[in-house]
Amino acid sequence: MNINNLQTLAKEFSLFVEKELEGLNEDDLKSRVHWLKKLCNARQQKIPSPHATN
């Protein structure tokens, strides 16, 4: 994937998140943020670092 594809994907994701979070109250936002952090942590644990040595 090249940088232009990544930039486009990031913009699309940002717009998606903005639309999804629009109108939610504070408790809903906190819940979504907590879930997203758990998801990101799980993904980071599954994706090996490009600098890792075997």
Q: Could you describe the 3D structure shown?
A:
It is a single chain. With 54 residues, this protein is mostly helical. The chain has a domain at 24-48. 74% of the residues lie in helices and 0% in strands.
* Rg estimate, integer Å: 15 Å
Number of helices: 2
Shape, per Cα inertia axes:
flat
Report helical residue fraction: over 70%
Model regions low in confidence, pLDDT < 50 over at least 5 residues = none
Instruction: Encode the helix/strand succession as letters.
Output: HH
DSSP E strands, number: 0
Biggest sheet details:
none
Tell me the structural class. mainly alpha
Give the N-terminus to C-terminus distance in angstroms. 24 Å
Strand proportion, as a percent range, falls in: under 5%
Oligomeric category = single chain
Q: What's the pLDDT, averaged over the residues?
A: 81
Quick overview of this protein structure:
The chain has 54 residues and is mainly alpha-helical.
List its salient traits:
54 residues; mainly alpha; 2 helices
SSE layout and pairings?
Layout: H1 3-21, H2 26-46
